Each structure stands twice: as C-alpha cells, then as structure tokens.
Amino acid sequence: MKSRGRARAYANIALIKYWGKRDEKLVLPMNSSLSLTIDCFYTETEVIFRKDVDRDYFYLNDKLQGKDTTEKVSKFLDLFRKAAGLNLSAVVKSRNYVPTAAGLASSASGFAALAAAANVASGLNLDNRQLSIYARQGSGSAARSIYGGFVEWKKGSSHQDSYAVPIDDAQWDIGIVIVMVNSMEKLISSREGMKRTVDTSPFYKVWVESAEEDLKHIKIAIRNRDFKKTGLIAERNGLKMHAIMLGANPPFCYWEPDSLKVMQIVRQLRREGIYCYFTLDAGPNVKILCRLSESHKIKDRLIQFFDPDQVIIAKPGPGITIL
Ligand code: PMV
C-alpha cells in the first residue's frame, strides 16, 4: 500500500443548481444539477496515513485546524478507511489557491481533492465514478469537481447511482467572470439553507420539477454549442433557486445591494449586444457566464464600479489531477 496521496481539484460553478437533499446523511439530492469546472480556483491536498500519530491532523493553508473542521475531514476519511480496511490516522495538508485575497472558499474543490488524495493514499484505486460518489458525501457539489468542463450530477435512485458524468469539455468560447461582492463567511450555510427551503418553502415542489426541465434543455443547448440559450437557461434557473428561498419560513436571501448592481450591469451589457448571463450561489458573489473572448470587455465595464481585485476571469478548468 502506498500510504501517501496528493491531488488537485478545481472549483465548479453550477448552471443548474443543486438545492435540497432527499437524504441528509448520504447527500442524495432532490434534483440533478449541471456545472462548469473553472480553472482559477483550486485546492491541493496531501493525505498521509501514518502509524506514528494517534489522531487525524488537518492543516489548511499551513494552519492546524480545530476540532470541528478536523472532525469533518476525519468522518470523510473514515469512508476510505472502512472500504480499505485501514486502521491508521492521517495527516492532511490542504491549500486553497485563490487569485486574490478574496477568501473565496469552495467545499467542491476541497472535498474532490481530499477524495482523490485519500483514494491514492488508501490504495483503494477507485475509478472516477466511484470517486464522485465518495466526494458527494463530503459536499454535494464536490461530486462534480471530479471532472473538467461541463459536468452533470445525476441525482440517481440510490447511493450507488448518484454521481457526476462529464458531458462536454467546454473547449469553445466560454468563460466566467466572477465578481467578489463580499468575501465574508455566509451566515446561513448551504446545508442549513437547503434544509429550511425543503422543509418550509411552498415553492419547493415546483423547483424540483422545473430544475429537471431546465437541465434537459440546457444539455441540448450545450450539445448544440448554443451559447445564448445555455446562458438564458442558467440565469433563469439560478433566479428560481433564490426565489424558493424567499418563500421559506423564515425567509432568507443571500443577495446584497452590490449583487443587484452586477445583475443590472449584465442586463445593460446584453442590451448593448454583449451576451452574458449571471448566476449566484449561497452567497452574494456573482458569476457571469460569457464568451471568453468578451471577458475582458465585461471586466472593463465592471471595474468602473468595483475594485479590479474584485473581478476575476475564469476559463473552463480540468478534472482532478494526481500530483
Ligand atoms: O455542495 P454544497 O453543499 O456546498 O452546495 C452547493 C449549493 C450551490 O452552490 C448553491 C449550488 C450548486 O449546485 O453548487
């Protein structure tokens, strides 16, 4: 057994959102989702199973982490230890690579890199499909970061068939401009936000049906490399996700005034013939799907209102890499 593994995984931006679990423990989603892996933000993680430590140690950006964060990592490593019949503690070292000091965190790149490194270190040698199933249990969106380009996470019917599949390498004129409106940690975690929405929002049932419909149409648009249609479906789907949160009890909203400002700028750009489309996740930052060839023009407009450090251009990114 090789007891050391090191891997890199990239973040992804959902164009059809995952919002809501049907099984909290196994992280089985209510609806299938689709994302684009991006190249500008990634995590590198090393896992070493060692005989000379009596508990797991987790360092993030060189800083030893406390009990709660380490426990999440330990629980995740237990999946690998159990499957490999391994009874050793681990030292895990992780580093997030972010283009600015914006503090953009991604559980997707984090758990995908951890899964890929643990896979090597435990000697399990799972294939990417199995790895996606493992990563999913760390954080749902991590299931998609196993692959590059456009990726679909199939909700499946059980634990064993809820995994991601690559659907297009995104090697066409596609990019994402990220506007960092606020890098503070969010007040309502996606886990908590999802649960509240599923439990209390009267719109939730409609969301599930409508997300499946959006997914069907965006896959056709991507297959046809129809950029405008892809963007329009993504923008609408994202807005619908935020609408169901407004219907929750108590209601909540991740947007900030600057998020709306960015949406306004995007709509204005479209009126001028620069086709681009916004989407927001469980936070105020805005991601703009655009033609990569027009990303600099879009950034130029945005920095009339925002600091250049707040505006990041991303290209489609690759899947996991073993280092
Ligand atoms: O993977 P989680 O539990 O952080 O949830 C991600 C939720 C969204 O980012 C809002 C949507 C998505 O599909 O990535």
UniProtKB/TrEMBL annotation:
GO MF: ATP binding; diphosphomevalonate decarboxylase activity
GO cellular component, one term: cytosol
GO BP annotations listed: isopentenyl diphosphate biosynthetic process, mevalonate pathway
Keywords: ATP-binding, Lipid biosynthesis, Lipid metabolism, Lyase, Nucleotide-binding
Keyword Protease set for record: no
Origin superkingdom: Bacteria
Class of enzymatic activity (EC top level): lyase
Xref: Pfam families: MDD_C (PF18376), MVD-like_N (PF22700)
Span of domain Diphosphomevalonate decarboxylase-like N-terminal: 9-164
Gene3D superfamilies for this protein: 3.30.230.10, GHMP kinase, C-terminal domain
Family as reported in the entry's similarity comment: Belongs to the diphosphomevalonate decarboxylase family.
Name of the molecule in the record: diphosphomevalonate decarboxylase
Organism from which the protein derives: Tepidimicrobium xylanilyticum
Classification lineage: Bacteria, Bacillati, Bacillota, Tissierellia, Tissierellales
